[in-house]
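Co-fold these.
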Amino acid sequence: MICDECKKRPANVHLTKIINGHKTEMHLCEECARAKGELDFFGAPEFSFHNLLAGLIHPEPMGIGMTMPSPYRTPRKCETCGLDYTDFTQSGFLGCSNCYADFHQQLEPLLRRIHGSTRHVGKVPGRTSGTLKIRKDIESLRAELQKCIAREEYEKAAEIRDRIHELEGKLNESA
Amino acid sequence: MRRVEGGKDLTARNYRVVRSMSLKDIIEKTLSAWMKDGGPEADVVLSTRIRVARNLNNVPFPHVASDADLKGVVDAVRDAVKRSPTLASLQVLDLAEVSPLDRQILVEKHLVSPQHIGQVKNRAVILRKDEVVSIMINEEDHIRIQTIFPGFQPEKAWELCNEVDDGLERGLDYAFDEKIGYLTACPTNVGTGLRASVMMHLPALAVTNQVGRVLSTVSHLGIAVRGLYGEGTESSGNIYQLSNQVTLGRTEEDILENIKGVARQIIDQERGARSYLMRETRRQLEDRVYRAYGILANARMITSEEALRLLSDVRLGIDTGLIPGIDRKIFNELMVLTRPAYLQKLMGRELSPPERDVERASFIRERIKEG
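Predicted complex below.
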């Protein structure tokens, strides 16, 4: 097969692009592919960690069968700092701490891919740790309450319920 | 080369004498604590570094923040440091007020990242006097706290880093989310914001062509390895840095345990490879390390890359007992002292690259003879 571009050298780069369901095929020699920028993913000079991350977020540079999340379902701009989600997909950097809440839906699968988890279990700042601890305690007491009810241990369940009320009262005081 | 010292004009030769007499003093004064002392497992591990990334609530991240926002961050952190009883003695350096050469030295000492000195307006670094603690302000994140210890001391480094973090937090409102933890400019750091790095010298694994195998194995364990100088598995000086990649979904202690476990195995493998070399190819090894010693002790011009490569060989000779009578910490020292900016600082003037090669060679000769 001869290169589509120069029609001289043999084609050894075969590209299939699917953009909006429209499929195009290209057969290029290495030289023409590089000139057209189609070979950039091999040892490109700008290969950097953030480009790699951007690829994870936005797996479309080669257009191989991946669909982007619909722009209509999820917010495209952070309400606080105005960062556009596409800026993030290019730079790998978010604009402010509120971006995490605003882009929560898009970020969750990404966090899972990077870290294999979406849940922080480490250190908690001292100032928030008080109320956070209470909330976590309430969470685990509620789980215990359900277990007690299932086992028909109503006396113990009542004790736990009172304890939950007490903690909720504390939480409201500090809020 | 004419210089005035203590009101006396010194010729080049006189200067050399004065300089060599005070060489140890100069080194003593300019080195960070991690370069002076060996620490545990010093035959393989050069240093252990911990850094945590923190940001302030409701302030845009540095790459999009306005000058006023950035200045606000510097002021807020400066204030928090001043008011903290444990941190008040730390020194705040406004990077715009530090000379370009001194900024480069901060990079060579691993106290700030190369990116941090790219833009200096409203950027700062906070240092403890012994340079064990450094805090970068407005790098990729608003705050990056780093502690660096000689040898293999992940617990100690984390303990101190955690303490500094607690001290700062008392005066600042950190961006924190109950579900995903400390919020960072890049999602790769979110959660604990913790990066633990262990810098290792792996000459025997390199000589026996095992580095690639070891490195690809650890990459499956959520740990990245890179050559400290140079790219990929090639590293001049055979210095490699191990760091955790995952920051979310694990406790700080888990992250440390994981990297400790991996580092320990690499330490054992490196030691195993060293005894293998001593047992099977002692004569060749001896020849190699003494050739390196010979060049370093006699060369009149040397590039920093060649210096690193030969220093690595000499260090292997010291660690295997083939070269007696030299303190192994001179490797850590010279590794930093012979970098371009540091060298110019020591010489007290700007040097062209060929001049640097001359001064570097002469500096190494003197230092090696002192032992």
